Amino acid sequence: MILILSVSIFLATVVGTIGLYLWLEARRESLPQRFKEIVGEEAGAPRDRIAASAGKWLGKFQKWFTAKPPAEAELVEMLSGKELTGGRLLLNQAGIRGAGAHYAYTVVRWALPVGLVVLAVVYGYVAGASNRSISLMVLVAGTAGFILPDFLLRWKIRKRQEEITDALPDALDLLVVCVEAGLGLNAAFIKITEEFRLSSPALSEEFDIVNREMIAGKPRQEAQRALTERTGVEDVKSLVAMLIQTEKLGTSLAQSLRVHSDSLRMRRRQKAEEAAAKTTIKLVFPLVFLMFPALFIVILGPGVLQVIKILIPTITK
Fold first, then answer.
1. Which residues constitute the domain of residue 6?
2. Structure confidence by residue, pLDDT tens digits, 164-185
3. What Cα–Cα distance (Å) separates residue 90 from each residue in 93, 157, 203, 253?
4. pLDDT tens digits, one per residue of 194-205
5. Distance between CA atoms of residues 160 and 154, nearest Å
6. Nearest C-alpha neighbor of 64 from the set 100, 90, 34
7. N or C: which end of the chain has fewer CB within 10 A?
8. Contacts of 192 (CB under 8 A, 6+ apart)
9. How many domains would you assign to the chain?
């Protein structure tokens, strides 16, 4: 029994360490990697070989989540407003648009609680725990299995929305320059797709999808409204509303974009000031519950010990 527990803990530690290493390496950005993406050369480093080996182990399950973009007609059919509901809407907002992404997410969402419950039961009987402890472990494992997929998906959505929000003002500046230079709105979207492919892949992908939808024959206003549904970002929603209103009223697109860009930057500055103002309130908890007790022990501790040392003999007499 002890041997089984030791081997299980060792394997879990090894798998967790390898997963954490691959995740950190995937997020790390360096100059050689960026240069390699620009030049388009294949990498032969050991790190790339490890990542390629890990990708082979994932197999078809990885392809469900990282499928190539479909053709224009398939894209319009897949990203129509009728299908962007429920889990499909969340997956689109997270940037997961593989052919079987929704099916794989559904399987994971229902298989993970069952698997964790089975592991909890097996671990409880192997460890010789009581029935009450096993029931508690089963309850915790089932709850974690139901909550974890949705939590991770919404965390990915929030990170992607933050990336789009941070890159949108620069995209608006480029959009203003392109429109003032004489390019049409579609050509400006294509330019944003090309220029932000490395700095903000999420924003570049969204504008690329808009271009594909319009090329496939989808009306511009519907393609722009679909953009707001896929991203779920308020700044994108206000931008799309401004573009649709400008097209309907026939006003100057460049002037409207410039005014909207200035208001968006002012809003970002106000959000930064608001976050800075909340810092003092957020510091109250660590100061009161972590810093002050330690300071009281260090400052008042010797004095309290002296008082106790003097008073205890007096009370005992």
1. 1-58
2. 888 888 888 888 888 888 888 8
3. 5, 7, 17, 32
4. 888 888 888 888
5. 10
6. 100
7. C
8. 171, 174, 175, 178, 203, 204, 207
9. 2
